[in-house]
Amino acid sequence: MEASQRAARILVASNRGPVSYTKTADGGLTSRRGGGGLVSGLSAIGPDADALWVCAALSEGDREAVRQGVGEPGSHMIAVPPEVFAAAYNGIANSTLWFVHHMLYQTPLEPVFDESFESEWAAYEEYNAAFAQALADDAAEGAAVLVQDYHLTLVPALLRELRPDLRIGHFSHTPWAPPDYFRLLPDDVARRVLTGVLGADRAAFLTRRWADAFAACCVDVLGATLSEDGQAVTYQGRTTRLGVHGLGADADFLRERAHRDDVAERITALRAETGPGRRLIVRVDRTELSKNIVRGLHAYRRLLRVHPGWRERVVHVAFAYPSRQDLALYRDYTAEVARLAEEINDEFGTADWQPVLLRMDDDFARSLAAYRLADVALVNPIRDGMNLVAKEVPVVSDNGVALVLSREAGAYEEMAADALTVNPYDIRATAEALNAALTMPEAERADRTKRLADAATALPPSKWFLDQLDALGG
Ligand code: G6P
């Protein structure tokens, strides 16, 4: 599916692409394929669709691949200068827009919008302009372009100026902040982000809640008009339709992958490490501020304190994989997770029982092993666009799993009925939910797991992707 200039009929644009490159010691390159909803969604359109994935060079290895002209067929990696990328990605995307949408600021001290913000914002403009130009160069007449996430909020409007013939969609994988919080952004930036997304024909979200928040921001900040049915925003004579496409788990892929030999090996190892017969409370996340891993550990500690009968009978398996380590706050958070796990092990551990099994090296096969064995899954984010772990665990569970789920995760809209739902800030309630999950009768747990798996797989990535294309029409 080699797509040449001006030939692609379907284009996807995202910061992180399907493949990443690493430089080897001898100056060569190795590549690594990623997974996720976009990868499996795109595969649903088949190899002959003239599709192209435009993504950014994220690392020195990626930039080297661009220099050498190495690349996957069907993808176009663009390299902006490293300092521009770093300022756009770390400064604006991950420290500003991510923080606003997940409501992560500690507001007495942050945010501070000063000169360094100003130069980071200029980099974000440059990086978005580079994407818009690449898409304009690569797209065939009337092509459909699906722009992804908060890294690329300005692209729809910039691209529309360059290529008014294109059909443009924007999809947010994060929550959207309510207007009072969104207004923390400087007025000019808040307006630029909203008008950037409104450059699309359709702006789509994972849940109705996030779509409504976006519409409320448009009304509040821009004075835009919302249609009576709440499905479209009109601003300066142009109308942008709103869409909701929940993303579900990829059941076929997961069930096949979770039964390969490497997962079976990890199951044996995990059983040996946690001890026979012990209940497992499992969580798997990027070590991400919004995932609320620290409060999860506090809740587990409280469980052991308030319900001492669980001591020696349960292990908290916490897989917290490295993320965004260029940012000091993420490094500090990672250290806090490790410190707290150690503190709990020191407080309660015995000669043959380690209460918390924390692993920070990324291993997908081991994650699947933990999914299969979990008696309880803990998914307690402060805010989350969807959270696929909540959907994946019930799909591959061997013996049924009780799901403790934050009411601030997008998955809550589809999964609340059969989960034990919690306010993610409330450690007492989370500890009690863990206790209820551990004591849930087996038959009830099995029934709930079946219904959770059905809800989790109702919208597979292929449908999620094709529905968006359909909705763009043409
Ligand atoms: C979230 C975002 C994605 C992003 C992912 C990993 O799920 O919505 O756009 O790719 O986090 O973050 P990273 O910064 O490593 O790409």
From TrEMBL:
Annotated Gene3D superfamilies: Glycogen Phosphorylase B
Entry keyword set: Glycosyltransferase, Transferase
This enzyme's EC code(s): 2.4.1.15
Top-level taxon: Bacteria
InterPro entries found in the cross-reference section: Glyco_trans_20
Major enzyme class: transferase
GO molecular function: alpha,alpha-trehalose-phosphate synthase (UDP-forming) activity
PANTHER family: BCDNA.GH08860, TREHALOSE-6-PHOSPHATE SYNTHASE
Protein family (similarity comment): Belongs to the glycosyltransferase 20 family.
Name of protein: Trehalose-6-phosphate synthase
Originating species: Actinacidiphila polyblastidii
